[in-house]
Prior knowledge:
This protein is an alpha/beta fold. About 35% of the residues lie in helices and about 15% in strands. The chain is built from 13 helices and twelve strands. The protein has helices at about 15-25, 40-50, 65-70, 85-90, 110-115, 130-145, 165-180, 195, 205-210, 235, 255-265, 280-285, 305-325; strands spanning about 25-30, 55-60, 75-80, 95-100, 120, 160-165, 180-185, 200-205, 215-220, 245, 270-275, 290-295. The strands form two sheets. It has a seven-stranded parallel sheet. Strand 6, helix 7 (about 165-180) and strand 7 (about 180-185) form a beta-alpha-beta unit. It is elongated, with a radius of gyration of 22 Å. The structure holds nicotinamide-adenine-dinucleotide.
Amino acid sequence: MPTIVPFTREKREDKAIYYTSLIKDMKILVATEKPFAKKAVDGIREIVEGAGYTLSLLEKYTDKAQLLEAVADVDALIIRSDKVTAEVIDAAHNLKIVVRAGAGYDNVDLAAASARGIVVMNTPGQNSNAVAELALGMMVYMARNQFTSGTGSELSGKTLAIHAYGNVGKLVGRKGAACGMNVVAYDPFIKDDSVFAADGVKKVDSVEELYACADYLSLHIPATEQTKGSIGYDLLMSMPKGATLINTARKEVIDEEGVAKALTEREDLKYITDIAPAMHDLYCEKFGKRYFGTPKKMGAETAEANINAGLAAARQIVDYFVNGNVKFQVNK
Ligand code: NAD
């Protein structure tokens, strides 16, 4: 039986889950095509079994049919970049909660989950430092001609513009400031100016203003209907001479044709991205050392991020079943 913590009624509209969690041995499945580190799985097990629930694992699965079978009787699901489609949700008759161990959750069909009353959460912030360190490394890599010959340049004294000042953006800003960069940020959803002021960051009020001053533009917007394909020709063309665009967000936010056109017309511009775009081969051929795309998404690929996100996912599931906590729900 799970530890019973006093239930805060205001926290949840549907009390049924809470009462069920007290009488039923909840089954929690970790379904990962690309598994967590062993240390993360051990930690997840400790949290889940410590709460009196059962853990099962489906790792390195190669076929969707394996996932459909594994979810049939589970109450909770922990995933990484695994796709939870409407078909998976249909096959999971008891499913109450899905937690994406990571920040982006565009791999989960939110509408299908909501239609069944299934809570979907992410684990924001757990891999932010890993992504922020990669962004800084990418700036140095491009400033030093991809570690080949030729005179490079330094980050110190340059303007670092942060597009979206969320968990990753803030850490990139702080790390850039520590390197002596002048940090500027744009995030229309942060209404409280003290968030920027607390980090000594200059806030700008338009995306145009941001790109126009960016020696380095670090991109941290989520992929939404509004942002997909939104970073392209006009914004790149407005950047100062020798500017670099760094994308550790999502490849979908880039207008690849537009970026190619800008890099063709402006031989001083550079672009580096965590996960190669569809036009990778053409970019390599045309832009040489001015372009780099990682072959696989690397941002969150550290042992620390992997463990943090896995443990957070397990804790959030237990907290949901025991206390009804929906703080990190993304399909409200
Ligand atoms: P977050 O939710 O903490 O922050 C996102 C920020 O974007 C918020 O502050 C929000 O106000 C802002 N925002 C939303 N729409 C915007 C818009 N149209 N214009 C400007 N700002 C907008 O997310 P995060 O954890 O900082 O992640 C940022 C990005 O990094 C996401 O795209 C995420 O998918 C990606 N990410 C990539 C990796 C990787 O492996 N490369 C790992 C983690 C996250």
